[in-house]
């Protein structure tokens, strides 16, 4: 295996700093630096970009991001035990790595960065979806970030890129694909991690579009989609009951049959319906 930097192998780093993995923090580490460099490359050209990494752990992906030329990496890690290992990386890349010992759910790290901004992370599974929804629903669009390159449980990744008619299609697909391009870039088996998790993982690359694909009010679209998929096996005339007195006419005008189920309806139709519900 070729070295990507002059720092010690990650197994040694973990042993030296006593970083035994904690399940409660979603700690499944990537120790193969060629793999972490490959994930960093999936984010595109990093030179000239600020990168936000959530959950650097012992720093495998952080080293990949820096070796691939990121202008600056801001790494937010909740577990203070990782700080000495991350400090060694900061010293090897002077001025290019800032580490924040914080809970990523409690702060707005994007505010600390200079565009263009890319978010790259092997996310802790317990907070991954919440962070993604936050990044996909900022107060204003386009968002502060250009792209998100994120590792998820494979099922979550499939829900992000899903198309109508598939089991995985739902709120997350519509939310991600309304204002972004989202594609699957890599599958990883449990054996890629130490310790191996119970499930497979996948990396998704999401690029922000300058404008939504179809106009709609974000709050109305979100409420509509949440209601439609809350009872995904029900016909929409029943699942959306109460939204408007003339609901069936509005559904038809939006190109949706009242007997359709949410899982077969495309983004364009949901946006048309959201527009018709706008006061
Ligand atoms: N990036 C490392 C890698 O690829 O080997 C570690 C990934 S591990 C799946 C998730 C990391 O997120 C852990 O280091 C964990 O301590 C950290 N973490 C968990 N919850 C967090 C939170 N709320 N805010 C910031 N970091 C968190």
How can the largest sheet be summarized? 7 strands, mixed
- The CATH superfamily of the largest domain is Vaccinia Virus protein VP39
Mean pLDDT: 96
CATH class of the largest domain: Alpha Beta
Order of helices and strands: HEHEHEHEEHEHHEEEHHHH
Q: In oligomeric terms, what are we looking at? A: single chain
- Strand order in the largest sheet: 4-3-2-5-6-9-7
How many domain units?
A: 2
- Give the overall shape: elongated
Number of helices, counting only DSSP H or I runs of 4 residues or more: 11
Low-confidence stretches: none
CATH T-level topology of the largest domain: Rossmann fold
The structural class is alpha/beta
- The percentage of residues in β strands lies in 15-25%
- Terminal CA distance reads 61 Å
Hetero compounds: S-adenosylmethionine
């Amino acid at each position: 295996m070729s070295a990507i930097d002059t720092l010690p192998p990650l197994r040694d780093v973990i042993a030296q700093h006593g970083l035994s993995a904690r399940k409660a923090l979603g700690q499944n580490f990537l120790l193969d630096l060629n793999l972490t460099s490959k994930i960093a490359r999936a984010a595109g050209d990093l030179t000239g970009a600020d990168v936000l990494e959530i959950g650097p752990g012992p720093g495998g992906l952080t080293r990949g991001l820096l070796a691939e030329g990121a202008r600056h990496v801001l790494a937010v890690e909740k577990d203070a035990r990782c700080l000495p290992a991350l400090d060694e990386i900061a010293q090897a890349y002077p001025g290019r790595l800032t580490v924040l010992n914080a809970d990523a759910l409690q702060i707005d790290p994007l505010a600390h960065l200079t565009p263009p901004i890319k978010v790259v992370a092997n996310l802790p599974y317990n907070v991954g979806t919440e962070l993604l929804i936050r990044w996909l629903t900022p107060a204003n669009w386009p968002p502060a970030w250009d792209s998100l390159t994120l590792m998820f449980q494979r099922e979550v990744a499939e829900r992000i890129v899903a198309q109508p008619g598939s089991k995985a299609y739902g709120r997350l697909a519509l939310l991600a694909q309304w204002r972004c391009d989202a594609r699957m870039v890599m599958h990883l088996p449990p054996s890629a991690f130490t310790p191996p998790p119970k499930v497979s993982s996948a990396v998704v690359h999401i690029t922000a579009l300058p404008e939504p694909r179809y106009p709609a009010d974000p709050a109305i679209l979100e409420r509509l989609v949440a209601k439609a998929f809350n009872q995904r096996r029900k016909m929409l005339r029943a699942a959306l009951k109460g939204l408007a007195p003339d609901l069936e006419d509005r559904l038809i005008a939006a190109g949706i049959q009242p007997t359709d189920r949410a899982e077969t309806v495309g983004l364009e139709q949901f946006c048309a319906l959201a527009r018709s519900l706008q006061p």
